[in-house]
Amino acid sequence: RGPAVICLDLSGSMAGAKGIWAKAVALVLADLARRDGRTATVITFSSGAASVRRHDIVPDRRGHTRKPLDRPALLGFAQTPVGGGTDFVAPLWKAREVIENSRKHRRADIVLVTDGEAHVSPEQLEEFSGFKAETDTRCLGVLVDVAGHERGTVDALCEEVVSVKALKVGEVRGIA
Known about the structure:
The protein is α/β, with parallel strands linked by helices. The chain contains six helices and six strands, in the order E-H-E-E-H-H-E-H-E-H-E-H. A six-stranded mixed sheet has the order 3-2-1-4-5-6, sandwiched between helices. Helix 5 links the parallel strand 5 and strand 6. Helix 3 packs parallel to helix 4.
């Protein structure tokens, strides 16, 4: 129920409907956090044109007012290109940096929205697990259209993994 850092896969395999669904999932999660007065940051990633970009689309909350999503940041997020390969290490280490370097992101959960598999070395998995344990961080996976894809790395990184195809309205609030 704390802050959220949403890592969104925008690799080439996410082109078309999968990319639209994945961005929609990220926006819904960020908006649910905003409605609850929580901080949310979206990190888009691929190994190509989109690289790793941070989008703070949920503005800081002052007092008890829940501000709307940040429109310029939201537009930048929506226009982030799709392309390249899938690399989980760069966005997860960026999420780690956000959590470790920001008071408003303490005890944040990481949500990995992707359609597939990417290699993460056993050493990197161990380091990421250590980071999660030290910071009381959970990593949740949301798989978008994963027919025929391996999900072993996502399962190894995340405590819980759900599929967009099987996602029900009540479960979305449980992830956020």
